[in-house]
Every structure is written in C-alpha cells, then in structure tokens.
Backbone:
C-alpha cells in the first residue's frame, strides 16, 4: 500500500489507486455473481482477499483523515457558559478558518474517505443481494419496516468530526446527570454553532463526491444526536431503568423519566427544524435509499424495547392515576344538556351531524379519557418508526382504553340485575355510560383516519400476517376497540328495550288478560253519539302508556340521538309484535264496541311515538293491518273468507288490494273467525 514516511500527496494518490482497483474488482464480482452463479467458491475467495486488503486500507485512511483534522485545530474548545441561552460565547469553527494548502489537503482526504465509504456500501449491498438470492429471494416486509432508522449510517467524514467533540463534551455531561436539560442544551448549541460552517464547507464536497440525496446539515445533526444517544444509553437510561423497575421505585424516579422524555421530544423538534432549515424541498427524498434523514434521539427506544415498555408503563400508570379520581366522582358521569329539545320536536337529519362531546350527550368523563389517551399518542409520535409506535400504543393507550371499557361495562351491567327500569337514576346511569361509549367510538374512528395510524395499521397487519376481512374498518388501527364498543352499545341498548317491554307487559297484564272486554256490547240507547266517538282509553292500559311516555321522555332528553332513534324504533317493533299476538291473534271475540275500544287504545299508543315520527303507524305494521281488517265492511270480510276458503292463488293480491301487506293469509283467517257478526254490520 503505502508507508508512513511518504508525503501526503503520494499517500492520497495510492489510496485513490487502491480504491479504484477495488471498484474494478467489485464490478467483476457483481457481473460474475449474476452470470456465473456456479463460481461461488471462487467468488468467495476473491472477496475474502479484497476484504483483507480493505481491513488495512480503512483504518489507515481514517487515521490519516484524523491527522488532517488535528492539523486544522479540530476539535475546537467548547464554551459551556449558560448553554441554555442564545447569547453564549461564539465557538470559532476551524472548517471555516482553513485556507490554502490546509483546505486542499482536507478536501482531498474528505473525497477519498467518501469514495471508500461508497465502495464499502456497494460491497455490503452486493453481499445482501447475494444472500437474498441464496434464500430464494424470500424477504419479509417486516425486515424493511424500519429500514431508514435501523440501518442508519452517517457519513464517515462527519462522524470523524463528531467523535473528538464527544470526548470533550461528555466531560461536561457528567456534571449534569441530575439536570439533563443542560446536556441537551449544550448539544443543541454545538450543533447550531457549527451548522452553517459544515453546510458551507462540506456540502460542496458531498456534491463533488456525487453522494446524491445526502445533506451536510442533516448528517451533521444526525451525528451529534447519535453521539448524544450513545451517552444516554450508557449513562442515563440504565440508571433510570434500575430505579423504575427496582424495589426502590418512587414518584421521583417516575417524574425524572417523564421529564427526560419531554426534553427528548422537544429536542428532536428543535433539531429537526435546525437540520431542515434552508431546504427548498424538505422531505422530498425521504423515501429514497441513500437520503440522509436526520436521526431523532427518540430512536433510542427502537433499540431498547425494555426501555420502551418501561416508558409505556409509566405513561399508563400516570394516565390511570389521573382518571381514577374522576371515575369515583359521580358528577363526572352526569349528563349535561345545554339545550333540551321539546318532546314534540321531530328528529331531523341535522341532528346526526355529531362532532363534540355535547352533541353526543356524553358526560365529562368521556372528554377526560380522550384527552389522556391522546396525550400518550401525541408523545409517541416522536418515535421514529411505525413498529415502535405500535408497541408503545398497544402497551399504554390500548390497555388504558380497555381498563376504562371494563369500568364502563360494569356500570351498564346494573340493568341486567333487574327486570325494571322504573328508577330514573339507574336509567340515566346506563344512558350516560352508553353515550360515553358512542362518543369514544366516534373519536377512535377519527383517530384511525390519521395518516400516522393508517401507516401503523398497515404495518401491524403485515407484521401479524393478518388480512382484514371487514372492509368497513379496513386499515383501522382501533378496529378491535371499536368492535368492543359497538357490541357494548348494541347489547345494552337491547337491554333497555327489553326492560321497557317487560315493564309494559307487567303494567298491562290485566288489560291483556281481560278478553271479555273486546266482546262487550256498547250502549244501545246512544242515538247521536257513536261508540267510536264516545270510547275512551281502557283504564287498565293507561298506566302502561304513562310509564312508556315518561320513559321515552327521559331517554329522548338524555340518550344520544342515534341511540334514541334505534331505541324507539325497536320498542315500537316489540310492542307491535306483543300487541298483535296478545290481542288480535289470541282468539278473542270482537264486537263493534270492542273494535272501537281497540282502535282508541292503539291511537293512544301511537300518540306516545308521534313526537318522533310523522307516520307512526308505519312502525306498527301488524297491529295496523289487524285494525284495518277489524274495521272492514261486512261484504269485504265475506269476500276475504270466500277467497281464503277456496285457497285461490291470488290470495296475496287480494290482501294487498285491501291494504293488508304485513299479515299472512293464516293470520287474516284467524282474525276473521273471531269477529262477531254484529260488530261489522254497517
């Protein structure tokens, strides 16, 4: 190669000759790998010899480059007075001060080292490609998830600038182990003070070396962050981890950990702004191989999953402690309605444009849960990779949400322990819990549409090899949590419906069992007032109607608009089925007075639901068809009986022509035989 006594110019020429010769050999190896795959042993032998030569070439080139830096006066002395302030003393930059022969010597050494690094990168890529070829080109996507972060390798030339600075700067770090903010402030100051000089001097050299996509600013900032990460990994985090997981864990250790993470997040934001300052197209090449993306200090958690778990556990405990006091305070579960709509108002389509907690009528506890969960999400956004963010969210936010879901489910289960919902407090308790569930569901749907969560969802599905079959929640990060809430909402909405129907059944038991009332004859001496006009609601039916009306009023005021729509329609459907089967199909005999009474009672029932819909009759289809059949004229009834007795094929058309769309021919025949002749003589 070359001897140490030779002048630098000759050394440089021989170094370039060696690099060019190795490049030629590398081209031959690449061609042979594709055209002569059977020459594997020969290729490996040649490659081993080249590697042996490079193992001597690389250290020597780095040693010569360090000697050039020392001759320039690098590293400079560091000013540590008031590192937090911007008015601290200016540190002279030897890169800017170098002139003439020194500048030329440094430029030659810089370019040679860049050429050597580029050669090494080509060799590594060729070996990687050959390894994939041997494995049949089977490459898991998970191996490339964090490619830019995990495989980050800065420029050797810039690493050589940072390495001697680290030796000096860590002396000051050791004094501030209890005040990490000074450590970060000093790193930021040194990075900022030398940034302009590094950019002005090194960027032209990087461009001359044809390192497309590399930024001197970002490489410099990343190298300084990497140096800081190494110190934190060695001196700071191990101590905090021992304190947090040890038996002597205390509030002070937890506070120190959270404080350090806050500083790291803030530091990364400031460094990102610093590194990207002056870039006309920031981030345009971020997805391309070779682009020098600045390394965040939060990447320390990518390499230490145990520290990530500790941090997630601390965030989870902190959020749980803050929420615990609100969970136990019933005022947090109180539904506050800013404007109570009148019961007579028909629900409009605008009511479904829900966006805020108040729109969903959710208690304040819902907002607390959302804010605490979102605070954890915001803090993990600084993590550099999707897989790391997934691990953090699943270890903190997801557990936090499910803990709250469990508490929510316990509150709703109270309705299962009783067959009555006569107590307003219990009804409001369940309604408030369900409103919370609905609000959280909507919030998580919105979160899942964020680009960060879309990326995390795709990554998580790929890592698990999961194919989502639910297109409605395709690529939804919180799909499992949403499914859980939807099931909870559906189950307990049906519990309320069931409880209402059971209460209604119990209160009108006597009304249903009194079958004689439908066959009773009206007053024969009323000449001017018909039975229909004179009929009032059955006394045994009034209590059930009053209960239903009061329950509906309370639920309309306190239940989410969507829930209430589903609820009253389900209740109407249940009542229609109950009344139709309990009265018209129960083989009771109907007199004309009984028909009028049944009509008056059903009219009163429809009145309860009239505020929610303009055509309430449409939600009682079977009962309304039965009433329509009972009030038909005698000739129409006789015709229907004739058609039914003959079993004609057009029976359905016959029923439809008389407005009977929802009851079968068997139902019609059963009801007809129970109509007393005098009830239908018109």
Residues:
């Amino acid at each position: 190669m070359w001897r140490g006594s030779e002048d630098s110019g000759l050394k440089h020429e021989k170094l370039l000759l060696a690099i060019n010769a190795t490049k030629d050999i590398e081209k031959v190896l690449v061609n042979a790998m594709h055209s002569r795959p059977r020459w594997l042993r020969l290729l490996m032998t040649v490659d081993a010899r080249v590697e042996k030569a490079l193992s001597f070439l690389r250290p020597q080139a780095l040693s010569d480059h360090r000697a050039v830096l020392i001759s320039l006066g690098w590293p400079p002395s560091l000013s540590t007075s008031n590192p937090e302030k911007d008015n601290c003393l200016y540190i002279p930059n030897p890169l800017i001060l170098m002139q003439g022969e020194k500048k030329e010597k440094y430029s030659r050494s810089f370019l040679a080292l860049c050429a050597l690094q580029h050669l090494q990168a080509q060799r590594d890529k060729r070996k990687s490609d050959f390894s994939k070829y041997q494995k049949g080109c089977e490459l898991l996507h998970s191996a490339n998830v964090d490619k830019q972060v995990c495989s980050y390798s800065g420029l050797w030339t810039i690493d050589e600038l940072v390495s001697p600075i680290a030796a000096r700067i860590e002396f000051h770090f050791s004094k501030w182990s209890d005040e990490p903010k000074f450590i970060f402030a000093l790193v930021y100051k040194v990075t900022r003070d030398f940034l302009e000089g590094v950019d002005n001097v090194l960027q032209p050299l990087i461009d001359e070396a044809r390192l497309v996509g590399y930024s001197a600013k970002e490489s410099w900032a990343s190298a300084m962050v990497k140096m800081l990460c190494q110190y934190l990994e060695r001196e700071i985090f191990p101590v905090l981890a021992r304190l947090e997981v040890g038996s002597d864990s205390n509030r002070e250790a937890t506070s120190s950990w959270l404080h350090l993470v806050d500083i790291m997040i803030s530091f990364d934001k400031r460094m990102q702004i610093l590194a990207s300052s002056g870039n006309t197209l920031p981030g345009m090449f971020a997805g391309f191989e070779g682009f020098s993306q600045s390394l965040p200090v939060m990447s320390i958690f990518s390499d230490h999953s145990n520290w990530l778990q500790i941090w997630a556990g601390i965030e989870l405990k902190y959020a749980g402690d803050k929420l615990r006091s609100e969970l136990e305070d019933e005022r947090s579960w109180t539904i506050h309605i800013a404007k109570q709509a009148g019961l007579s108002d028909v629900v409009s389509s605008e009511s479904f444009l829900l966006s805020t907690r108040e729109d969903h009528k959710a208690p304040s506890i819902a907002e607390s849960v959302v804010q605490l969960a979102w605070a954890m999400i915001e803090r993990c956004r600084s993590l550099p990779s999707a897989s790391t963010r997934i691990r953090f969210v699943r270890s903190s936010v997801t557990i936090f949400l499910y803990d709250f879901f469990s508490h929510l489910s316990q509150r709703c289960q109270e309705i299962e322990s009783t067959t009555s919902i006569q107590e307003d407090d219990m009804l409001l308790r369940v309604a408030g819990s369900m409103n919370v569930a609905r609000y959280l569901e909507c919030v998580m749907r919105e979160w899942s549409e964020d680009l960060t969560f879309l990326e995390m969802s795709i990554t998580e599905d790929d890592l698990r090899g999961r194919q989502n079959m639910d297109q409605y929640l395709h690529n939804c990060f919180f799909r499992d949590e949403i499914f859980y809430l939807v099931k909870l909402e559906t189950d307990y909405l049906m519990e309320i419906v069931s409880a209402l129907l059971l209460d209604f059944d119990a209160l009108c038991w006597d009304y249903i069992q009194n079958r004689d009332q439908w066959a009773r004859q009206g007053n024969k001496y009323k000449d001017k007032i018909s039975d229909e006009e004179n009929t009032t609601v059955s006394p045994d039916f009034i209590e059930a109607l009053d209960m239903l009306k009061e329950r509906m009023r309370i639920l309309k005021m306190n239940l989410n608009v969507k829930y209430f729509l589903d609820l009253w329609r389900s209740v109407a459907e249940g009542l229609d089925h109950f009344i139709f089967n309990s009265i018209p199909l129960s083989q009771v005999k109907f007199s004309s007075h009984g028909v009028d009474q049944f009509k008056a009672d059903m009219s009163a029932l429809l009145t309860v639901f009239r505020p929610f819909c303009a055509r309430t009759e449409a939600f009682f289809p079977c009962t309304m068809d039965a009433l329509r059949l009972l009030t038909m004229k005698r000739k129409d009834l006789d015709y229907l009986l004739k058609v039914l007795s003959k079993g004609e094929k057009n029976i359905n058309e016959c029923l439809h022509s008389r407005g009977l769309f929802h009851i079968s021919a068997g139902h019609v025949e059963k009801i007809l035989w129970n109509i007393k002749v005098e009830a239908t003589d018109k």
Notes: The CA atoms of residues 92 and 136 lie 55 Å apart. The radius of gyration is 40 Å. The chain has a mean pLDDT of 80. The chain has three domains: 8-281+293-303, 306-492, 508-680.
